[in-house]
């Protein structure tokens, strides 16, 4: 992100914007740490569901309160989006609620990322995304060093991690532009529908089976996009 910002000769944001962007990165980095900790408890469906729903619902409510009523069509879209996120992320069968506290903290952290980035204002999306990642790197690096839990890292895993990081940072920059161009609640709810694309790619690449409820969730997400965009 910083390399792209320098190549594009983008103007450096104000000090306040940088501070908000770094606060956003710290919140997002902590959220990921809690997210993976909850996953290690074996509750993937619970973690993904709570993290996605809380991360979307809290900023959406703040957006409605701060920016006014968005209209019944968009509110209906928000409700459908929340339903779609829950149906897409949930696991089939019964699952013990392990890691519930970490999942809640992850959702709050994701919400903090969205809200802090919104406060960063209208500066360069590339610079804001870059500063957010710098803060997240410092936080997660400190956690790794403090934990001293080092182990071998296969080359393929490192490569896939780097690709995922580039995609994630690009998504951050695109969210910044979306939130700068319109309402916070709209940007957050549409961004939080990312599990739908994950499920579709899993079906295409990994040949995973679509359950009935996941299909319903995808349809709810599609309808939500139409209502929110309208």
Please explain how this structure is put together:
This protein has about 230 residues and is mainly alpha-helical. The chain has one domain. The protein has 10 helices and no strands. α4 packs parallel to α8, α4 packs across α9 and α4 packs antiparallel against α10. The longest helix has 27 residues. The radius of gyration is 18 Å and the shape is globular.
Short description:
The protein has 10 helices and no strands. The protein is mostly helical and 230 residues long.
Work out the helicity level: over 70%
Q: What is the ordering of alpha helices and beta strands?
A: HHHHHHHHHH
Low-confidence spans:
none
Structural class: mainly alpha
Task: Write down the Rg.
Answer: 18 Å
Domains (count): 1
- The pLDDT mean sits at 85
Form type: globular
Q: How far is it from the N-terminal to the C-terminal residue, by CA? A: 31 Å
Please indicate the percent range of residues in DSSP E strands (runs of 2 or more): under 5%
Largest sheet: none
Tally of contiguous helical segments: 10
The tally of beta strands, per DSSP, is 0
């Amino acid at each position: 992100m910083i390399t792209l910002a320098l190549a594009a000769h983008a103007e450096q944001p104000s000090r306040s914007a940088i501070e908000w962007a770094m606060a956003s990165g710290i919140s997002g980095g902590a959220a990921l740490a809690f997210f993976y900790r909850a996953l290690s408890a074996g509750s993937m469906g619970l973690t993904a569901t709570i993290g996605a729903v809380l991360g979307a619902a809290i900023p959406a409510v703040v957006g409605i309160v701060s920016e006014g009523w968005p209209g019944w069509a968009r509110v209906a879209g928000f409700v459908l989006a929340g339903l779609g996120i829950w149906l897409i992320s949930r696991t089939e069968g019964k699952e013990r609620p392990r890691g519930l506290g970490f999942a809640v903290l992850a959702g709050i952290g994701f919400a903090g990322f969205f809200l802090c980035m919104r406060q960063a204002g209208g500066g360069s999306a590339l610079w804001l995304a870059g500063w957010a990642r710098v803060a997240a790197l410092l936080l997660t690096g400190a956690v790794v060093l403090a934990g001293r839990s080092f182990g071998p890292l296969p080359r393929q895993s490192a490569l896939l991690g780097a690709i995922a990081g580039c995609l994630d940072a690009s998504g951050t920059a695109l969210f910044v532009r979306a939130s700068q161009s319109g309402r916070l609640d709209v940007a957050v709810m549409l961004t939080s529908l990312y599990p739908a694309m994950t499920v579709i790619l899993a079906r295409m690449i990994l040949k995973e089976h679509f359950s009935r409820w996941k299909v319903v969730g995808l349809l709810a997400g599609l309808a939500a996009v139409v209502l929110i965009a309208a």
